[in-house]
């Protein structure tokens, strides 16, 4: 499928539930990596080569005299070398070398910020699709109650679980625990976690998402008062209308207001679990569409997604004259990358 044909599609909740999100199929094509600079022994004895290079099956990625073999590699005793067993990017942690597949499902780690979709409501928990091998589990005890009330969850809370999250809802959460059977536990006990509204979902290969100090970004240079991004490490990226984060309320200084209960929690009692989107101006919708197209270009070309790269690419796209089309945006971004190199 050509990049210009990657459409927006409305993803409806099961059972006719409310939908507050659109999905952009930007991760449907296989990323194409530039491998011209990758030679055998991509990580030599001195370890001068950086990680992130592409390795092919059968390619020597490091010497076994100084490095240990990780996932995606095997030892070649005839060459004293560590050889890649698959096509992927080389990763090095101290003396451990591994190869991460280019096309694979997301592998959760504790502390990862992820975006998922509620697939089922069960007894005292929700099942969440995060793009991993199995659905994750979000326990009723791992969420904030409306109004920020800090108490043990009761049977009455279990009876109204669908008022918190229902099938089809998009949520941002954090990986809390991993179990031996491969299942994943999530939590949303944070002001920035919970149900997502007022935006669009872009799906890209998880291998392209770089780890950042914060995965909540704001691109304020875009028209329409900017947009907010949530970079999920599972490759799901949420692009939405910019909403200022009130640090005073986060610190509990706004606890005297009527719509906030509990010091240090500062969760609005109205709308915290709402499915209703706010009115979004046309300029903001265009900015959201621009960011989704930029992410589609990054996914199509196999470019790593970082905060700096996104800011530069979106600024370039916003400066283009005339209607924005993916081929023209791709050509513009490619020229910009070539000029910098």
UniProtKB/TrEMBL annotation:
This is Exosome complex component rrp4. The keyword Nucleus applies. One of its GO terms (biological process) is nuclear mRNA surveillance. One of its GO terms (cellular component) is cytoplasmic exosome (RNase complex). Pfam families: ECR1_N, KH_6, S1_RRP4. InterPro entries: Exosome_cplx_N_dom, Exosome_RNA_bind1/RRP40/RRP4, KH_dom_type_1, KH_dom_type_1_sf, NA-bd_OB-fold, S1_domain, S1_RRP4. It comes from Malassezia equina. GO terms for molecular function: RNA binding. Keywords: Exosome, Nucleus, RNA-binding, rRNA processing. Belongs to the RRP4 family. Its main location: nucleus. Residues 109-189 form the S1 motif domain. It is found in: Nucleus. The keyword RNA-binding applies. PANTHER family: EXOSOME COMPLEX COMPONENT RRP4, PNAS-3 RELATED.
